[in-house]
Amino acid sequence: MTLFWLPLIPVTIPQPVTVNAPQHYLIAQAVPNDKSQNPSLLDVNPASGVVEFYYDLPQAIPNLPNSVPPLSNEGDASLLKPDQNSRVTPPNTVSNEEKAVIFGLNQATTVQNNKIAKIIVTAKQTGETKEWEVPLVTQSSSTIRKTLQNDPTTDEVTEIELISDYQEFDEQQKVITARGNVTMRFTNGVITADRLQVNLTEKLAVADGNVILTRGQQVLRGDRFEYYLVQDSGVVFNANGEVYQPSAQEDFATTLPGDASAGAASFQVLGDRLTANQPLQRITTNEGYQFVYGSRPNIIGQKPLRSISGGSVNRLRYQADRLEFEGGVWNATDMRITNDPFSPPELEIRAKTASFRNIEPLVDELTLSDSRVVFDDRFSVPTFQNRQLFDRRNRRPNAYTIGYDGRDRGGLFIQRNFSLIDTPRVSFQLNPQYLIQRVISPDSFPESNPNNEDTGIFAPSSFGLLADLDIAIARRTDFQGIASFSSLNLDNIADNVRSKLRFRQRIGDINNPYLLNVEYNYRERLFNGSLGFQTVEQSYGAIIISPTYFLGNTGITLSYQGSLQNINADTDRLDLLPTNYTDLTINLTRFQSAVTVGKGFLLWAGLPLEPTPQAGLRFTSTPVVPYIQLITGVTGVAGFYSNGDSQLTLTTSVGLIGQFGHFSRTYFDYTGFNIIYSKGFYNELSPFLFDRFVDDSVLTLGITQQIVGPLRIGFQTSYNLDTGQEITTDYFIEWSRRTYSLLIRYNPVLELGSINLRISDFNWVGNPGYFEDSGIRPVIDGVRR
């Protein structure tokens, strides 16, 4: 193996060097030279570098062409010239030229004053070494020499490590050629290749043959790679690789000026060729990105979504005929991008040209031309949008979305998001809405227009608005303000607006904190089981919510919350209303506490299929694990009101949840189910309607069934067994694939519907290769959830 140090500036060695190859080690001998032939050399303060060679025994040297450099006294260096195809035109100007040192495995540099070059020749087997000190000067004019002497930046040294099975140095052309298992490590990346040449004059590195560039989590592969070391720019031919967005900003960034350790080379080679090229393995799925068009309430018995819209797709892979980069900006031609680790990809974006850059912290921009979305390498549709933002902050997508809200907005509507303020700490967004169904069929939901407002095409009541203000005050503290207008008719503005102001403080462990909410609500819409929709006219107070605790190794979970609020809401208790009342609203202060304990018992579990496109990942982003589980839970709630009333409840629940099949075969290979029975006990009833405990015997049932291929249908329903009344029923149909899914759901009881688009987020290790190959909150057990 050969390792050496060299200066990356134009240099000339005034003393010719003769190189001989003995049996066990390489000897470099400095041949005396008459200095009088070049007297100018005596007046120059030369730059310096270190050249260090390690040679194996002769029988270990690979049998490659030009395996022994020609003797310099023969004057034949043409055999070491770089390939003509590897030369590219350098940039017109290079400011503040840097000196770089290519150094060996000992990781130590003896260059201090940057004036003398040490040639160190070591016999690898015996450890015998010889040293020569050789003055080095530039080949440039005296003007350039003076610039180097007077420029304070020339004291800085950029360290580059080059390791390979075989290396040669053309002293006349100033070209280093490395062959066989080549690894070049520099400040912000690692290149591995079969062959690599470095032109010291032009600061240009050219690699070919299984080229891999690794920068942190970013991986770039290609057949040929041309890279300017100083400008941090280059071009890759027949490129493919991966972009990991969370660290893209750091990985694509250049060295920080004040970072003293940024230029220091690591002892560990970062680019492991075997790991980078091994077959795909450890394929895992993260949360991904989801868009929810419409209103999606939290349904009793179902796990609510963590967020209505949001998430992220962190790892993407791409392929391009030609990819140019400069710093953190990447430009490509004939680009293909996908979140699918397998080929051919199920879902991809193709574009004639593409440009990727980081525009601010946590935000990346992708600009495309002639782009389209391709499904299963067959069907394609235009994107109609050439600019995509990958925003890892909690932001709504800047796009047209479709919603459905029968009770407030008369059914189907369309909205568009506009970000008026968008900074890392402050976000202010407006969502103008056009109420399509109210205009076309105003009688579909009469309760959505109680004041019989005009519903013409351009009438104010045909428009709505959603305003959202988010302020990150500190790491643990934030503020949110939301205002929802179901009509822009200002004459009835009090009946058409719902709003919330919330101050949130995280307490304790930041990863699993207590949440303290101090909030004000105006006309908050709640759904309380058999009592249906209830509106709380006004409320203000504080709520503290605990994290979920796991009690030792018992499998028991525990959580609790407490609140103190002043509430204006409707009642049916005439004794609480004044004599000459005009409405059913009363004002009381309520203190409420709740605690929930639960435990699951795994009755049976099968094994998942392998995470391959033909098996476990055929129709789903995560291999299905068949199982049956018994779940149990107890919830206790205590509510005390300022008029002396109280509501104490205890609810026990027991049920079975599970799934069968692997969702891999074409027909009926998946069935998911849940059946839960809840029984409640109470002493008195709340004076309010919105938190009254009325459903004390409830059966919840849900089924999801694969019909054919990726098509699944299902429902989720809850019944009050005492009255036989349907509490709520949710129907859905889903088209599920490995990389994406489309879910359409509708609830006729709540008069709500939504379209849910999920984009999967995969993570993997290895080389994938080329491409061919709502505003409604439920009340449960009297507690607002």
Mean pLDDT: 73
Large-scale geometry: elongated
Q: Work out the number of β strands.
A: 44
Give the quaternary arrangement of the chains.
Answer: single chain
Enumerate how many helices there are, as a single number: 6
Q: How many discrete domains?
A: 3
Distance between the termini: 66 Å
Could you say which structural class the secondary elements and strand pairing correspond to?
Answer: mainly beta
Major sheet: size, sense and barrel closure?
18 strands, antiparallel, barrel
The helicity comes to: under 10%
- The stretches of 5 or more residues where confidence is low (pLDDT under 50) are 1-157, 246-284, 286-291, 296-311, 762-771
> Radius of gyration in whole Å, from Cα?
35 Å
Brief account:
By secondary structure, the chain is mainly beta. Helix content is 4%, strand content 51%. The chain is elongated, with a radius of gyration of 35 Å.
What distinguishing features does this structure have?
single chain; 785 residues; mainly beta; lipopolysaccharide transport protein A fold; 3 domains; 18-stranded antiparallel beta barrel; disordered N terminus
